[in-house]
Amino acid sequence: MTIGQLAETTGVPASAIRFWERHGLLPVPERQGGQRRYPPEAAQRIVVLRTCQQAGLTLAEIGELQEDPPRRQAMIRAKITEVEQRMIDLEHAHQLLVHALQCGEEDITGCPKFREQMAAWDTSSR
Questions:
Q1: Interval 50-61: pLDDT, tens
Q2: Around Cβ 95, how many Cβ atoms within 10 Å?
Q3: Is residue 63 within 8 Å of residue 25, measured between CB atoms?
Q4: Residue whose C-alpha is closest to residue 27's, from 44, 9, 51
């Protein structure tokens, strides 16, 4: 399939496909008459790339997924730690927002329950 067909199939602009090729995230396709020709599995690879991006992996990290196992394992372990911290941060944000909806204080930063919760978060992250 041509780059236009691949872009239409995947919903990814042709410019992004070319960018991924230049950075080694997609194999360089064969050319016929000067046009890129992609095999069907290129669409599957793009789905994987987009899923990785949506999961928070940078392009460099996605590239490391293609590296040798020790390097890949190190990146994955570091990313798991980062994701776990983001999950904690998101849970704190959720608790804050739920409390803010229910809190009767004019200024939430003056709310004793809010301050108590903030202190607990600070203690738990050490």
A1: 999 998 899 989
A2: 15
A3: yes
A4: 44
